[in-house]
């Protein structure tokens, strides 16, 4: 059985989540609930769950504040949120899981199953997550890349380019280090959209900070800091030129 705690300031949300878990996730046992970050912190110091459902936005302290006060966590976490765009980006950067309110049955089942399959400890992901939150007004410092073996924590600035590989993405870093990541290129295009990355081709997402030169052609080509030369599709050329003011 998966021992679970629910922390959310909305009584109706906790009740709905409790009912969904009881009906659709029978191998999950709820061992406690709390309606605030302060009460949740006390509960987590008394009980050790396998899985925590944690609301992002709560009065008198957010879910992020709770994690900061807790320090370390030996359990999996599924965040719940209604609207906080920044929170979702921070969560995705660290390959943590989340559910949008109102929570749907299929999404809940998938998130619980993923948490139950999780073998790698979440402590490193949470540490990276908290570091990124402290940089709220600046660029994300690190990104957690899920791999077949576990995950890698990488400085975003070290990412030179990302290349589609079916349902995977090949990350190429400074020093020509390569990491095959078990997520699609489209997901990273959305995730990195505000961090200087440009989709220049159906198969390529590049970090503009690593562009060395542009070579003219139908769409043209870019040479990156790792000396790779990547084709620019004709329909992406204008976006690239605009980004560099050319």
Major sheet details: 5 strands, parallel
Structural class: alpha/beta
Mean pLDDT: 89
CATH fold field value of the largest domain: Rossmann fold
Total DSSP E strands: 15
Radius of gyration: 20 Å
CA-CA gap between termini: 59 Å
- Helix fraction bin: 25-40%
Sheet with the most strands: spatial strand order: 2-1-3-4-5
**CATH architecture descriptor name of the largest domain:** 3-Layer(aba) Sandwich
CATH homologous superfamily annotation of the largest domain = Response regulator
Shape call = elongated
Beta fraction: 25-35%
Q: Describe it for me?
A:
The chain has 2 domains: 2-134, Response regulator (Rossmann fold); 142-243, OB fold (Dihydrolipoamide Acetyltransferase, E2P) (Beta Barrel). Strand 1 (2-7), helix 1 and strand 2 form a beta-alpha-beta unit. The chain has helices spanning 11-24, 37-46, 63-70, 85-93, 105-117, 123-134, 185-191, 234-243, and strands spanning 2-7, 28-34, 51-55, 76-81, 97-100, 142-146, 151-155, 159-165, 168-173, 178-181, 197-201, 204-207, 211-215, 221-224, 229-231. The strands form 4 sheets. The protein has a 5-stranded parallel beta sheet, sandwiched between helices. Strands 10-9-8-12-11 form a 5-stranded antiparallel beta sheet. 34% of the residues lie in helices and 31% in strands. It is elongated and about 60 Å long. The protein is built from 8 helices and 15 strands. Helix 2 packs parallel to helix 3 (63-70). The mean pLDDT is 89. By secondary structure, it is α/β, with parallel strands linked by helices.
